[in-house]
Amino acid sequence: MLLLPLHRWVWKNPHRRARKLLVFAETEADGGRDLARAAEVTTDPLLRRLYLRHSVDERRHAEMFRHRGETMLKALSVRRDGLDANWFAPGERGLDDLVVEADNDPALLAFLHLSERAAATRFAIYREVLAGDPETQAVFTGVLRDEVFHMSYTKKQLERVSPRRHGLKLWAARLHRIWKAYLRVATAVAGVMGTLILFVQYFVVLPCFALAAKRAERRRLTGDSLRDAPGWTARTDRPRTLRTQY
Ligand SMILES: [Fe+2]
Ligand SMILES: [Fe+2]
After folding, report:
1. Ligand 2 centroid vs 58 CA: distance in angstroms?
2. Distance 99 CA to ligand 2 centre (A)
């Protein structure tokens, strides 16, 4: 795979590796909570059992990632260095976007299937590049086994609950994921643009105005523009009367 060296670089730094595992733990725990909610609202008994098992799996993954991340952080100094690169190696992304509604099992299963498939592909890559850290690699091996099961049960159940429209549901979920990815990129670009515009305002535009104001003040003090008295001054050449305000 072309991006393998980049993944290797992302996971090489032990500080970054530990922090990423803790971020993954948050995503998995969040997904576990949403799946427990899905088990509550579904009216299908088989799906309820599967969602519950899925929820327990995601909570276990959260614990595995958290435990490994904390163990690594304890063994390392607290020094923070480098980027986390979460945009490039995001873990089980999709679980964080889960929308659980009643009577919405086909859409939920389609979205879960695509998210789990993407997660399984990513975790297989992470496992491969972590050859130098067998303990973290073992965590990914355990998690990957469950993700493959999640990927296959969601597909099978989608075909069961929506035998005619499962293809359509998958396309709708795909478009939703593309839209979410676009929003993520657009937000990141907007953040960079905002920083750039503020930088130019503070360090280019404002200094120009400050310079112009200084020069104008200097001219005024040296008598170049004595005709323009600074600020508001009361006129004294008008007759004073109490009948009008002017
Ligand atoms: Fe997971
Ligand atoms: Fe999963």
Report:
1. 6
2. 15
